[in-house]
Each structure stands twice: as structure tokens, then as C-alpha cells.
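testing teh design pipeline on a random one, pls ignore if ur not involved
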């Protein structure tokens, strides 16, 4: 490592040329960089959340989550379902297949 550092200190022209090349490359990269104010993000998850004040997780599971799962499990394009029941609320996360029509599945849900 000492040899490389010593060579760069002795050859200031090479060091300056490398620095100029790095700066020009950085400027060029910045100019061609795609920039957006509000970048779009594509997602393949749908969340169905429900709130039932005072309900136990068992009630949420039996009364709400199971019914939502039964209603959506036959929809074409769904990859898998994940459900979570907590005190007073429940959530069903529906993940669609990457090649499925997300908007159509969202409307169906």
C-alpha cells in the first residue's frame, strides 16, 4: 500500500487527472439521473383493516377475519393471505401475484 500512495504523491499530474475524471463522471451521472418529485411505487399488497372496540382477538378472528378470508380466497391472482387479530382490531393482508391485474383485484376486494 505504501508503494501506491508514494506513486500518487510523486505523480501529481496523474492524481489531478484522476480527480478531474471522477468529478466529470459524477457530474455526468447526476445530470442523467432520473428525478421525480413524487416517485411512483408499485405495490402488490392490499390491507383490509377493521376496528371493533372492546373485542377480544378471538372475537375478531371468528367474526371478522375469517369472513374476510372466506370472501377473498377464491379471487384469481391472489398469491397468499396473512391475518392478524389484536385487541379491538384485525387486519388481513392480501398479496397478489406479480403478473396479476392489481386494480381489478383491488376493486373485487
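output:
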Amino acid at each position: 500500500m505504501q508503494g501506491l500512495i508514494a506513486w500518487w504523491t510523486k505523480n501529481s499530474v496523474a492524481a489531478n487527472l484522476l480527480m478531474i475524471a471522477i468529478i466529470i463522471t459524477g457530474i455526468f451521472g447526476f445530470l442523467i439521473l432520473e428525478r421525480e418529485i413524487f416517485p411512483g411505487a408499485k405495490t402488490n399488497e392490499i390491507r383490509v383493516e377493521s376496528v371493533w372496540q372492546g373485542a377480544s382477538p378471538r372475537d375478531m378472528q371468528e367474526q371478522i377475519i375469517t369472513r374476510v378470508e372466506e370472501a377473498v380466497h377464491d379471487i384469481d391472482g391472489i398469491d397468499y393471505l396473512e391475518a392478524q387479530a389484536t385487541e379491538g382490531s384485525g387486519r388481513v393482508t392480501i398479496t397478489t401475484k406479480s403478473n396479476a391485474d392489481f386494480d381489478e383485484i383491488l376493486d373485487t376486494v
